[in-house]
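Our collaborator T.R. sent over the components below with a one-line note: 'Predict the complex.' Nothing else. No constraints on interfaces, no templates requested, no preferences about which chain binds where. So this is a plain run: every listed entity goes in together, and whatever single assembly comes back becomes the starting point for the next discussion.
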Amino acid sequence: MTKLTPAQWVQDELLAGRHLRPQVEQTTAYAPANIALSKYWGKREASYNLPVTGSLSVSLDDHGTHTQLCVIDAPEHQVYLNGEQLAPDSGFAAKLATWLGLFTPADVKLRIDTRNSIPTAAGLASSASGFGAMSLACNALFGWQLDYTSLSALARLGSGSASRSLWHGFVKWQAGEASNGHDSVAYVLPERWPQLRVGILTVSSASKAVSSREGMGRTVNTSKLYEQWPAQANADLATIEQAIMAGDFTRMGETAEHNAMSMHATMVAAWPPLVYWQPESVAAMQKVWQLRKEGVEVYLTMDAGPNLKLLFEAHNEAKVQATFPQVDVIRPFTSQVHE
Ligand code: DP6
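Returned assembly:
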């Protein structure tokens, strides 16, 4: 059997007979950003964004993306990010147009108004919440009534980490085995952790030189150290899931930090080397390790950028804030947005 292209798969299998034209004029949707505790780093297949391993994240509550879609009579889609129109060939606008092209007929054009409640400078994976919100908004605009599992596969085709951005709380993206990715979808874990805090520490707003997409491709292709990554990532994922079930913060935090540092080690060993850290990132890491020495249990994780995400529990919030006055503290399980 010949392999389906992503567009054929979306139209023939995922949407299977559902509308390919908007059923209403306008819709809105919200999706939270997410931080991976066990990372997605490397694809086994690029056109479907299929990962080498599974990953596990925590969603960031009211830090995410609000998207409004309107059907327009125009030659091209129009993409606005935080109120400003993006050039059609700019990164996010071009990615959105490619993704919409998977299922929209050429004469259907949309105005996409996307607003991030995450400081853009924080370099948080806004493409994750962006494609999460787009998938939800399209589900309403086209009247598909797809379940969240199917929407997770659709969001993944925009950006891998977006497969995890449809839910609040802890979310696991299973790698899957199928060549069309129908089983490479995320689901929410039942566990809640009201005491958990995620601190966003923006240490540098230096713009990202190399995207996650390019960075992971380069790492897979050129880094010798990547050979050991899948085994560690799978083991870390299992450990973190067990730690969440057991409510074991130490085990969860240590494994998440070790996972992130190991991912960065694979990047440093790529060629040309990929070093996302700035001097301020390293200084902040040292403060985190100093805090731990003083008995304040705080761990760090980092993605493809210079900023840190801190993991700690409610009883240490004041101490973390005293050390990092600029930290933005998120309570993933206590806000009203998803009650
Ligand atoms: C380091 O999901 O942005 O944040 O699938 O190519 O769009 P594409 O990549 P993306 O990669 C995210 C990588 C990461 C780790 C993670 O979020 O799991």
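Summary for T.R.: Residues 36, 39-41, 49, 55, 125, 127-128, 159-161, 212-213, 303-304 surround DP6 (CB under 6 Å).
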